[in-house]
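note to self: dont lose this again. the chain is below, predicted strucutre after it. 100 aa total, dont forget to put it in the shared folder this time
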Amino acid sequence: MQGAYHGDTFGAMSVGERGYFNKPFEHLFFDVDFIDFPNQENGESLLQKLEDLFSTGEFAGFIFEPLVQGAAGMRIYDEVWLNLAISLAKNTTFLQLVMK
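---
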């Protein structure tokens, strides 16, 4: 998610916000699809984007900070949106396992 911070190892930096401090290491990061931070204007379209990404079968996980995105200025997730996003990830993963 845009604005995320998960740590300073290469894996954690790969899934966090890209910027000035980690720019020298970007060639070591793995590819990540980022989405914007959800709000009232983009929440529904972001859920659709997640569903589209998950449906490709080419994702390893949905990584987010639980309830509060602290490093980006204490942004608080809408709990309904977050629960829907988590449910999409879980249901897609379950369906992929069943279909194999």
